[in-house]
Amino acid sequence: MKELARGAESVIYEDKDTIVKDRLKKSYRIPELDKELRKQRTRREANLLQKVRIAHPKLISSDNKEKIIMEKIKGEKIRDVLDDNPKLARRIGEMVAELHDQDIIHGDLTTSNMILREKSPLPPRVGRPPAMQPKRKSFTKVHDVALPAGCGDFSGVADEHFPKDEIIFIDFGLSFHSDKVEDKAVDIHLFKQALDSKHFKSYDEALKEFLLGYEKVNKHKAIMERLRAVEQRGRYKH
After folding, report:
1. Each residue's pLDDT tens digit in the chain (238 positions)?
2. Which residue in the list 22, 108, 183, 187 is annotated as catalytic?
3. Terminal CA-CA length for the chain
4. How far is CA 105 from the centre of its chain?
5. How far apart are CA 201 and CA 196, in angstroms?
6. Beta bridge partners of 19
7. By C-alpha distance, which of 19, 1, 22 is closest to 11?
8. 158: phi > 0 → left, psi -120 to 50 → alpha, else beta; which?
9. DSSP, res 147
10. How far apart are the C-alpha atoms of 215 and 202, rounded to whole Å?
11. Hey, is 120 helix, strand or coil?
12. Rounded distance, CA 109 to CA 11, Å?
């Protein structure tokens, strides 16, 4: 297996056509406690991957101890395309609203944990001349990530012939179930911080689009009021 990334909690490997997430042992923990924590977090993430209704990595298998295997696909991280396409943030807002309406908190909403999946071609229309067939464009920034199957960049072809690009949320390692307005507000607050840190040039427009998309969430008014309170608390700490 080829190591793709290493974090504080896990290592991500590429294994042929799959992505393997392996939770790391922590030497500073009591061995029995460490084993139980890794097992609980692995089971929780695998369970969420089966229940989440927004586009996300397809779970292939899990040992329910420390390992999760997911499908792999090529796509561009939103981190690398949002500044040039801030309107993508509206769809992100809609997806976070869908997630929160399921009472699921992502816990790590950054543009590094979102992928713009490439468009997939539909079968050619009957009778379409060969010259009209879509041609594949070059794709410069490609990342192998755990996502549902299907890829191909056909952004130069009319939308009527192809499905729209799809945003995929990845890495549910810090996700959990909660119906609390506070937890949903904190999720949004963390996303705003990520925008401010990585996308300061497009921050205003991207945030505006995100909030427009998020308006579809249930309890929108209560969540926005709590968000203001969360941000006010943050200001008092500095």
Report:
1. 999 989 889 999 999 889 999 999 999 999 999 999 999 999 999 999 999 999 998 999 999 999 999 988 778 999 999 999 999 999 999 999 999 999 999 999 999 999 998 765 544 544 444 444 444 433 333 344 443 333 333 333 333 333 455 899 999 999 999 999 999 999 999 999 999 999 999 999 999 999 999 999 999 999 999 999 999 986 655 4
2. 108
3. 45
4. 12
5. 9
6. 14, 70
7. 22
8. beta
9. -
10. 20
11. coil
12. 19
Catalytic: 103? no
Task: Write out the two tokens for 2.
Answer: 């080829």
- Compute CA 5 distance to the chain's CA centroid, rounded to the nearest angstrom: 16
Residues 6+ apart with CB under 8 A from 209: 86, 87, 88, 89, 90, 93
pTM score: 0.78
Strands 143-146 and 67-77: antiparallel
Return d(Cα 83, Cα 128) in angstroms, integer.
36
- Residue 168 CB partners (closer than 8 Å, separation 6+): 55, 56, 57, 75, 114, 115, 116, 117, 145, 147, 148
Cβ burial, residue 238 (10 Å; 0-12/13-18/19+): exposed
